[in-house]
Amino acid sequence: MTGWRWGVVAAGAAVLLSVPGIVAALPVPGSPLTAAALRARIMGSAARPYEGYVESTADLGLPLLPDLADVSALADGVTEQYAWYRGPQEWRADTVTTAGENDVYQVGATTYLWNQSLNLLTQVVGVASVRLPRAADLLPPALARLLLSLASPGDRLTRLPSRRVAGVDAAGLALRPASAATTVAAIEIWADPRSGLPVEVRVYARGDGKPILVSDFLQVSQRRPGVAAVTPQPAPGVDSAQASLGSLNHILNNGRPHPWPRQLGGQDYDPVVDGLNAVAFYGSGLARFALVNLPGKTGRQVVSAVTSAGAGVITVPGGTEVVAATPLLTVVLATVRRFGGITFLLAGAETAKALEAAATSLLADFDRGRR
C-alpha cells in the first residue's frame, strides 16, 4: 500500500516537472498583424515597462584595440544581464563579468555607472550625442528599435512565423536591406504582438547562414519594476565620483567646424546629429557610414593598433589605407600624405569595397588640393 502511494506521488511530481516542457512544445498561435503594423507597434514600445534576464551572443570578429576591451567583449562573446525598465528615463541594467558586476542606472538625464571590482559609483553629467556601445544597447527592446530606426524606406519588411520566447507568444518580423553596399543580410525580430515589446533579435551578415548577433530574453515580465530597483543605493564605504561629458567637437576638432565634403563614395553628407560637426555621416539606411578626423597622435596610435592586429597597409593616390573588415563591420583608416599625415576613420556596416572606395575618393581630394 505504501509503495502504491509513493508511486502516485512520483507520478504527480513527474507531471508537474514536465508542464514547462509541455507548454513550450505547444503550437504558437499566429498573429494577424501585417509587417508594417508590427514594426509600428515595436517602434512605439519605448514606454513599455519590463523586467527580465537577457543573454546576448556576438561574433563580429573585431580586433582587440587598446582601451576598448569592454567594447571588444560585447562584440565577441556572451553578455548576460538583468534589466529593470520603467521607462526611457528610469531603468537599470546589471552585467555580470569575470571581474565582477557592472551596472548602469538611468535616472532622468543622469547616468550612474557602478563598478563592483573598483567599488566605485560614478555619476555622469550630460548627454552624449555619440558614445561607445555599452551592454544595455544589446537588450532586445533597445536593439530592435535602434536597428529598425536605421532602416531606409526601400528596405523590405516581411512577417516571420510566430515563436515562443521566454513564455511570450511572439510575432516575427524580418527586415532585408535593399542596398547591396551594406554587410547586413537580414534582421529578424520577435515581439509581443499586443505590447510591441521585442523579446529576441537576430542579425545576419551576407554570406553567413547563421546569425552573427543574437539577443533574447530567457526570462521576462512586463510588469513595471519598483522605483527602488532603478535607483542607485550605494552601501556604506562605496567610493563615488562625478564625471562631465566633454564636447566631442572640442576633443576631435578643437572646437573648429570641419569642412566635410558634400558627397563621398557616391553617398551624400547626412548631418544626422545636430550640432555635432566632429563626425560626418554619409548615406542612408543600414549602408550609412561615419567619418571622423582623428587628431595626429591619436590617429597614429589607432593605425598602429590595427596594423598590429594583422591589418595590412595599402598605398593609394594621396596616402595610405588600413582596412579592418569583419563580417558585419568595416573600418578604414585613411592617412593623408600631405599636411603632416592627417588620419581619417571611416566605419560602418558597409562592404570593404564600398568603404575603401569612399576612403580613396577622400584621399584623392586631398592629393588634388581640394580639401
Highlighted features:
371 residues; alpha+beta; outer membrane lipoprotein receptor (LolB), chain A; Protein Transport Mog1p, Chain A; 2 domains; 12-stranded mixed beta sheet; 6-stranded antiparallel beta sheet; globular
Question: Secondary-structure map with pairings?
Answer:
Blueprint: H1 2-25, H2 35-43, E1 50-59, H3 69-75, E2 76-87, E3 90-97, E4 100-107, E5 110-115, E6 120-125, H4 140-150, E7 156-165, E8 168-176, E9 184-191, E10 198-205, E11 213-221, E12 239-244, H5 248-253, E13 263-264, E14 267-268, E15 279-282, E16 289-294, H6 296-308, E17 313-316, E18 319-325, E19 330-336, E20 343-348, H7 352-367
Parallel strand pairs: 6-12
Antiparallel strand pairs: 1-2, 1-11, 2-3, 3-4, 4-5, 5-6, 7-8, 8-9, 9-10, 10-11, 13-14, 15-16, 16-20, 17-18, 18-19, 19-20
Summary, kept brief:
With 371 residues, the protein is of the alpha+beta class.
Q: Could you characterize the architecture of this molecule?
A:
The chain is of the alpha+beta class and 371 residues long. It has 2 domains: 30-242, Clam (outer membrane lipoprotein receptor (LolB), chain A), CATH 2.50.20.10; 248-367, Protein Transport Mog1p, Chain A. It is 23% helix and 37% strand. The chain has helices spanning 2-25, 35-43, 69-75, 140-150, 248-253, 296-308, 352-367, and strands at residues 50-59, 76-87, 90-97, 100-107, 110-115, 120-125, 156-165, 168-176, 184-191, 198-205, 213-221, 239-244, 263-264, 267-268, 279-282, 289-294, 313-316, 319-325, 330-336, 343-348. The strands form 3 sheets. Strands 7-8-9-10-11-1-2-3-4-5-6-12 form a 12-stranded mixed β-sheet. It has a 6-stranded antiparallel β-sheet with strand order 15-16-20-19-18-17, with helices on both faces.
